[in-house]
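Forgive a beginner's question, but might I ask you for the amino acids of a protein and the tokens describing how it folds?
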Amino acid sequence: MPLAPRVHRSPDCDRSATNAKVTEIALALMGVVEVDHGVFSETASWDQTATPCVLGRDAITAHLLNKVPPQSISIDQVVCHGKAGTVSGRLTRDGIGTMVFCHVIRFTDSSCRQVGQAVSFEHRDAA
């Protein structure tokens, strides 16, 4: 079993309950933590860089089982407003190096109980 990655959160990130929830979901999408699968609506979708869209709670749950976590994650920004949130920063993957990432989480309503859509990207860091 791989070691859990080092996760660094910028001290500038707001630690509100909604931001904490969005951060936990983003970490789950990166294979770092597990979340209750009920957090995804039955018809949720997940778009990722260079990967076909994953449709439905069961498909997302199955996809998460095979997610390989990065070696380290630095969360630079977490922003939530209404029924959407984003988590962005940098991560390091073995054999690939440092990449920027962003997860956009759209909830089904402003209560932020269930994810209706997630859009994720990772891109080689030019820095």
